[in-house]
Design brief:
Elements lengths: L5 E2 L9 E2 L21 E4 L33 E8 L2 H6 L3 E6 H9 L6 H6 L3 E4 L4 E7 L7 E6 L7 E2 L7 E8 L18 H29 L4 H31 L4 H35 L12 H24 L12 H27 L3 H28 L4 H36 L3 H4 L15
Helix pairs in contact: 4-5, 4-10, 5-6, 5-10, 6-7, 6-8, 7-8, 8-9, 9-10
Subcellular location: Membrane
Membrane topology: Multi-pass membrane protein
Keywords: Glycoprotein, Membrane, Transmembrane, Transmembrane helix
Length: 466
């Protein structure tokens, strides 16, 4: 049934309805790989043209070589391939695709000159008539991934009035094949993922070397017991989970580099290990800090500071852990890509960043109060170093997300992922050194019977329990 004529909206980038197995399409990157996934994109020509930015990125999965025309032999140009499923409908609507580079489109929008609808569309960098079942167009390469605006245009686009009829939608598939700078057409990594495979390999190698050097001495320290025994055990579990996450990510990317699919189970396992380690570390740091702060307010001069016996500190830690767990799982469910560190553009991600900032402020304030009234130089240095480790653990993620805004879209998640892993690893090393050194010291120190952190008073004052 035809609707009454209505004003035609100003043209804008077309909204694409992507199939369940598809990705955002475009790339102009000479530093990584060929775009090799067949992506099904649906554009509706019977409705008003809606605005949406199509972010440039390389598609990851394998494109069967038998189905597509290859780029030119010189390797200097990319190839845009379009296949139209219902070409008769497209011809009847005089359908076209207009592609603008983001910078050029923004300049056009900000221009003082008053361009008409047709004049704006005529300035597109690429125009493709949708009048054949299959079409190829050569695209000059851009030295880095960029954003493109894609316009679906038909004979109604610039008309002041149009009839909204139940005409058939124009369905088509679009793929951009881009030569690889290293002349390696089988490299499946996108611009946003290049380098992660090598990074996780070096990370796993570093964990292995460190384990060979320090595992035996650390195990002996843990077996001795002592006042820092529980903390060292929790830190060791967190470190093992981080190492397992790195190994799972490496196996996933190794498989991904060969088949373009990877091992989704390994990607999910890496995310799970990371979530558990984040939750454990949060509980450890928060319960330690709150236990010290609350215990210092209540204890007498002769009673040891009690960490795990304070209901208030335990309640605070559990509340924060549950909140962070919910936000982490929510964020992972919103983003199906297998990576633990996101650019936090969703509501869950923003709330998670806010939670980490609040936790850093809470711990910082609590530890500042302890440091301010502490008279012992040794213990003051202990608390100061512990504060540095806590602040680094919680604030590295929000800080790196903020810094990443200065870089291009495709670089952000890579910067966040590498940066957060390295910062949190450094934080754990800092805490390890702190607790191992003080564990050995407190065992023979007369101070341990008075104000030793992480000990619980018992009937036998010469023994420490956890």
């Amino acid at each position: 049934m035809a609707a009454s004529p209505a004003p035609r909206p100003a043209p804008g980038p077309a909204r694409w309805w992507l199939g369940s197995s598809s990705e955002i399409l475009f790339s102009a990157d000479d530093d990584t790989c060929l775009c090799r996934k067949m992506t099904r994109v649906f554009a509706t020509g019977a409705t008003s043209v809606l605005q949406e930015e199509v972010e440039a990125k390389i598609l990851e999965l394998f494109l069967p070589a038998t189905s597509w025309t290859q780029p030119s032999s010189t390797g200097d140009c990319a190839l845009l391939y379009v296949r139209i499923n219902n070409v008769a409908t497209a011809v009847g609507k005089e359908a076209k695709l207009h592609l603008f580079q983001a910078q050029e489109w923004l300049k056009l929008q900000e221009s003082q000159q008053d361009y008409s609808c047709k004049e704006k569309l005529a300035k597109a960098q690429l125009i493709m008539n949708m009048n054949c079942t299959e079409q190829n167009i050569t695209v000059s390469q851009v030295p880095y991934p960029d954003t493109w605006y894609v316009f679906y245009v038909d004979k109604f686009t610039c008309a002041e009035t149009y009839e909204d009829s139940e005409s058939e939608d124009v369905q088509f598939e679009m793929v951009l094949l881009n030569p690889d700078a290293e002349r390696n057409p089988l490299d499946h990594f996108s611009a946003g993922e290049s380098g992660l495979h090598e990074f996780f390999f070096l990370l796993v190698l570093g964990y292995f070397v460190a384990a060979c050097i320090y595992a035996q001495s650390l195990w002996q320290t843990i077996k001795k017991g002592g006042p820092m025994h529980t903390v060292l055990k929790v830190l060791s579990v967190v470190l093992l989970l981080q190492a397992a996450s790195a190994l799972a990510n490496y196996l996933h990317f190794s498989s991904y580099s060969k088949n373009g699919v990877g091992l989704p189970f390994m990607g999910s396992l890496a995310e799970l290990c990371d979530i558990i380690s984040q939750v454990q570390m949060l509980y450890l740091l928060l319960s330690l800090c709150m236990g010290w702060a609350i215990g210092r307010m209540k204890k007498s001069q002769s009673k040891p500071l009690q960490w795990d016996s304070s209901p208030a500190s335990t309640a605070i830690a559990i509340t924060a852990v549950v909140t962070q767990s919910i936000l982490l799982i929510w964020e992972q469910l919103e983003d199906t890509n297998h990576h633990s560190y996101h650019s936090h553009q969703s509501l869950a991600g923003a709330l998670l960043l806010g939670l980490r900032i609040c936790l850093a402020m809470l711990l910082g304030c609590g530890l500042y109060q302890i440091i301010r009234i502490e008279r012992s130089t040794l213990k003051r240095e202990f608390y100061i170093t512990f504060t540095k480790g806590c602040i680094l653990w919680f604030l590295c993620h929000p800080t790196l997300v903020t810094i990443s805004l200065m870089f291009r879209d495709y670089q952000r998640e890579k910067i966040i992922t590498m940066g957060v892993i390295l910062c949190q690893l450094f934080s754990m090393v800092l805490l390890y050194r702190l607790f191992v050194s003080h564990s050995l010291y407190w065992e023979v120190s007369s101070l341990s019977s008075v104000t030793l952190p992480l000990t619980v008073a018992s009937g036998h004052k010469s023994r420490h329990h956890f």
